[in-house]
Amino acid sequence: MLDLSGKTAVVTGGSSGIGFAISRRLAEAGANVLIGSLAPERSAELVEAGFSVAFHSTDVSCPQAIRQLADVAVERFGRLDIWINNAGVYPLKAIDAIDAGFWDGLHAINTRAVFLGAQAAQHYMRRQGDGGAIVNLSSVCGHRPMANHCTYDASKGAVLAMTRSLAKDLSAFKIRVNSISPGLTATPGNLAPQLLEQHRQNNVLGNIPLGRAAEPWEIADAALFLVSPLSSYVTGIDLLVDGGWLLHGS
């Protein structure tokens, strides 16, 4: 049920952090994987391990680059079955420090690119006629606000609403659309000094019932479930992978 042999997957931002873990899980399940990212980073590890993985330099803030990424996947592997909208940025600014350029730049990556990725993917999935699976990466911050997160929280909340709308629109074509909301995850980005201090101030670990951050592979396992036949009757949902963070009152 977790065999993805013959399937082709695109993972944006798939060469580091959660995206790399997702790329690896899909490759381990037998999928052909095209990583679209600004830098190859760890993607070569998967090629060297013998997986059917390729890298294509992609700036998801550029609409044309996203369309090209979908085209390259089909040109290289012959079809497109899975699209993971993982690429995202996580800058923090207080309300008075946010200007239009900052707002637009973050949403170009965290929000607009998610829609354009889904749009490009469904174009090929509809033509193939046998459906597909799209997974969007939201965040626990789309459910619960945090200090100095207004722009980021808004982008992830938009992903939740977008996922439901896309699921409704694309269900007629057997294309399933779901999202994942990770909680605190042990990625290089979350270990940056600014974010570590933010997490300390917000007592993040104290608010997580399981008492620890997630490992990237734990988010990747959720993605694997949502694109596999195990979730064939699941669409329009958000899967929280947060260690129970939302169970806590603050």
From TrEMBL:
Keyword list, A-Z: Oxidoreductase
A Pfam entry, by short name: adh_short_C2
PANTHER family given in the database record: OXIDOREDUCTASE, SHORT-CHAIN DEHYDROGENASE/REDUCTASE FAMILY (AFU_ORTHOLOGUE AFUA_5G02870), SHORT-CHAIN DEHYDROGENASE_REDUCTASE FAMILY PROTEIN
Family to which the UniProt record says this protein belongs: Belongs to the short-chain dehydrogenases/reductases (SDR) family.
Protein name in UniProt: Alcohol dehydrogenase
Organism whose genome encodes this protein: Pseudomonas aylmerensis
